[in-house]
Description:
Helix content: over 70%
Low-confidence stretches: 1-10
Strand content: under 5%
Oligomer: single chain
Largest sheet: none
Shape: globular
Mean pLDDT: 87
Amino acid sequence: MIHRPNDATHPPVPALGLRRNLARPADHPRTDRVTYVELFFDLVFVFALTQLSRYLYENQSWVGALESATLVLALWWVWVHTTWVTNVLDPARLPVRAVVIGLSLVGLLLSVSIGESFGDRGLVFAIAYVALQLGRTVFMALALARHDRVLYLNFLRILVWLSVAGVCWIVGALLPLEFRLPLWIAGLLVEYVSASIGFRVPGLGRSGLDDWDLSGPHIAERSALFVIISLGESLLVTGFAFVDQDASVPGVLGLILAFTGGVAMWWLYFDHGERVGSRTIAASAEPGRIARLAYTYVHAILIAGIVLTSVADKEILAHPTDSMRLSTAVVIAGGPFIYLVGLQLFRWIVAREVLLSHLAGIALLVLAFATAGLVSPLALAGLCTGVLAMVAAWETIVRLRAGTTDADAG
């Protein structure tokens, strides 16, 4: 990370702010390292993702799907913003560590209210979410005010937009239930769209891609670890569902398919794609652009695909041979479909690669969904898992034929 001194092109440093420079050190062994306190923060999201899976499983309707998508994007946005904080500041510093632990506590309150976020705990969820977003951003502004004028202005602009979005979240929780989802979606749109336009604020200008001096390897590793967490959550949900039912052949087959699908998802991301992203962002002259597109936005698609797959695994264990319902077909085929779409977008952004294996897999998943009414949930899961395994094998064979060794993959 490059730290810019204040010069004549920037306004004077404000008197307000922390005197101690908390930035990650340059040219130091821990410059790009993911720290243990960041992993502690991620532990909160294991529970959060479990609650999300449970919510979607219990609300398999179009409204339930829209509510779940809103919750997924909200949680992802919290995690992304916190990742950017620890990319800029040094988590080894006690003030930064204390803030991350404090954010973990508020994140736990957010997580426990997910199940009733569109019910009796909507206000708790909204307050926790807004407190996370605003509290973290205020701390960043104070930490950078005296030391990096450009980044300070960036977070000042972010604070303005998050405050506007926060009104939508709080008002949505206070008004009657029918207003909650529209207002919360409006809040999300404010947050996501503001990032896409550089957080432009009248009088404060906008943030350019060159304004973000980021540690590419750190962001890539943090995102990869979150994918691991999401896959682990999927196995956790499946495991709990399996032990809560009587042993049976369909149940065992469902468990094996869930594990095989998880392995295929892991393989597709980590055998090749993860290192492509890490190397690209590290070598790029515009790390901010890649971080914003590939890791801030596209990884949300990957996480959504994994969460939907965990719901499908639970549904398969509960109703392996029942008549196929539309909602069941959507979650079984939709999870792998969304995941492969996200992976293809990721590879296009970081390496301008169009992968025939991924496109073929996406087409086969669409075909499997079209024939869902003719098979049982367990059989459809077998087809979709087979597609994921095929794509993973295809990708690996292409890599090996190209002469890329295991050590140099990506």
